[in-house]
Every structure is written in structure tokens, then in C-alpha cells.
Amino acid sequence: MPVAHQGPLDIAFVSASSAPGSTISGCGPLIAGCAGRLRITYRLRSTQAGSALFARGFLYGTNQLACLKGRLGSFPIPAGQDVPVEIVFDQPDDCGTPLTIRAMALNIEGTVEIATRQEWTISYLFLP
User: pTM of the predicted model, to two decimals?
Assistant: First the structure.
């Protein structure tokens, strides 16, 4: 569920390799053992053309840390067109398992016509 939004882009959650609410097991004692196992697709839409320098996704645990992150390099955003982006959450922080994820954010960095942050409530459980 979307909760906070800042910036001109419309950003929507489309799908994930494991549906929200899923349990992902086999991580070992740290979330690093599950790095790269979750891919999330978003849809971006802008009324103005611009360029994204990068997109960065964050999955936040109940510990308030961004325990898994992912990044996508630069890409164009044409005006009035849907732009799908997929983030692979393959950059772990030092978070132990079991880990409950409760929030997600996507930052799009770029020109003033593009720079946007969207936040959602989301649920995942990562197990050893």
C-alpha cells in the first residue's frame, strides 16, 4: 500500500518475484544469504521527459534499517509513457534473520522533473 510520495513521477508497484506477504527461507544467519533473491518491478510515468541518474530501492526491517537495497543505473523517462523498471535487491546491510520487512521505498534520482521518492507498507519474512 502506498504511503508517502514526494516528487513529480507517478510510481506504482507492479509485481515481485515473491509476492508481498511471502516467507523467504534459506538465508542463513544474515540477510546477505538471501541477497539477489527478490526482484521487484515498478511502473514510472511522467508528464515531462527527463533522465534518471539512477533508481534505488530499499526494504526496511522492523529495526528501521534498510536491510536490503538494490540499484539500477541511468535511463531515460519519456513524457506520457509507462516505464517499467526492475530492481534486484542484492545489496544487504548487516541484518540478522529472522527478519520482518515492513516498508519499501523507491528513489529516482535525476533532474528536477524526475527526482521522486515513493514509499509503501509491505510485508516479507526472511528466515535462516
Answer: 0.94
Domain ranges in the chain are 2-126
DSSP, res 64? S
pLDDT of residue 111: 82
Residue 105 and residue 57 in contact, taking contact as beta carbons nearer than 8 Å: yes
Please say whether the structural domain 2-126 has been given the CATH code 2.60.40.10.
Answer: yes
Distance CA 97, CA 114 (A): 36
Burial class, 86, CB count within 10 angstroms (exposed 0-12 / middle 13-18 / buried 19+): middle
Number of other CB atoms surrounding residue 85 within 10 Å: 19
Question: Nine-digit cell at 60?
Answer: 526496511
Q: Using an 8 Å Cβ cutoff, are 123 and 102 in contact?
A: yes
